[in-house]
Amino acid sequence: MDVGGGAVKAGTVVLTADGTLTGTVLPGGGGSAMEAAETRIEHQVESDGDALSALCAAVARDQYIGLRSRWPGLPVVWGVSAAAWIDPHSGRSVFSPHLGGWRDRALPQDLSRALSGLTGLPVTPEEPIGHTPGAIPVPSVVNDADAAAWAEARLAPSTDGPDRMVFVAIGTGIGGALVRDGAVDIGEHGMAGEFGHMTMDPSGPPCPCGNTGCWELLVSADALAARAGRTSARATIDDALDGDPACRDAVAGTGRWLGRGLATLAAVLDPGRFVIGGGVAATGELLLAPAREELARHLPGGRRRPLPSVSVATLGNRSGWVGAAGVALERAGWPVRALSTGPGSSSAR
Ligand SMILES: [Zn+2]
């Protein structure tokens, strides 16, 4: 599952014997592809940690019960990606600008206890995510942008050989990650890639992180909606795609601020490509074309040096929960090699 500052997205995937992740539809679901495997629940409990954990446990219970009724003896892992800075060793959340209730919280223990309370099942004794039938697993918890970047790099890899990719997810805020040859570089303390909190305007408005004028205040979903004078980013994106001039201008303005930030990242990291994910990336070229122009304009030497490509994430808004699942499976010792977006398979490993 993917826990963001306004919604929880969840899904169930199976890993087949050849290492392919496959979307699976639980009893009661319709269709058979990856989209049908997905659940999305909007929430307003991001500042209440206990309520957010209880909501996640309720979503996990539904997934777990469906999974168990279909495959009673199958090993199960639980992967969670969260919009928070996660200690890579313990899974503890250190800080979160957008999930105020999940600051400084032992999330793996918190979530498994909540699910245990709902199901009456004991928690698997071994750490971190081993599975015992009849017991619920302790979740693997990772940063949401790291999970999404993992999914993009591993399940939709570059075909051009060695890869240095910077992933930027635009939603409630901006998440990011640097990926080198399929591995996410999480930094010395597991907290690299917080690109959204680069200061773009020191005299700008206050940010929930405690700083002022952060990049994400200019590029987030809320910034896009405000620029268009609309109440929601979703409406702005839909109307822009339908050709509304004011919404298209708002997307272009957002794209220019995106490009300015990408220029700074390119100057520091010199990546081969930028991959843009999150809900705002659904605007596609309306966002990316002005971003590329600003990138070339503001990157030092940008007219004379090779420029990184800028493209939209292949997995779309799904990469967070799919990546959380993939990371959890690999931590449990089951390598993931590919993603099938076709019909769900029942030949689970
Ligand atoms: Zn900030």
Describe the structure.
This protein is of the alpha/beta class. It has 2 domains: 168 residues, ATPase, nucleotide binding domain (Nucleotidyltransferase, domain 5, 2-Layer Sandwich), CATH 3.30.420.40; 157 residues, Nucleotidyltransferase, domain 5 (2-Layer Sandwich). It is built from 9 helices and 15 strands. The strands form 4 sheets. The protein has a 5-stranded mixed beta sheet with strand order 5-2-1-6-9, sandwiched between helices. A hairpin with a 4-residue loop joins β3 and β4. α1 crosses α2. The chain is globular and about 60 Å long. The two termini are 21 Å apart. The C terminus is likely disordered. The structure holds zinc ion (ZN).
Gist?
This protein has nine helices and 15 strands. It starts with a strand and ends in a 9-residue tail after the last strand.
Determine the N-to-C terminus distance: 21 Å
CATH superfamily of the largest domain: ATPase, nucleotide binding domain
CATH architecture term of the largest domain: 2-Layer Sandwich
Order of helices and strands: EEEEEHEEEHEHEEEHHHHEHEHE
The dominant shape is: globular
Which class of the largest domain in CATH terms? Alpha Beta
By DSSP (H or I, 4+ residues per run), the number of helices equals 9
Distinct bound molecules: zinc ion
Indicate the structural class: alpha/beta
What characterizes the major β-sheet?
Answer: 5 strands, mixed
Average residue-wise pLDDT: 89
Question: Helix share of residues?
Answer: 25-40%
Under CATH, the topology of the largest domain can be stated as Nucleotidyltransferase, domain 5
Portion in strands? 15-25%
Widest beta sheet: strand line-up: 5-2-1-6-9
Give start-end ranges of low-pLDDT stretches: 27-32, 344-349
Question: How many separate domains make up the residues?
Answer: 2
Question: How large is the radius of gyration?
Answer: 20 Å
Strand segment tally: 15
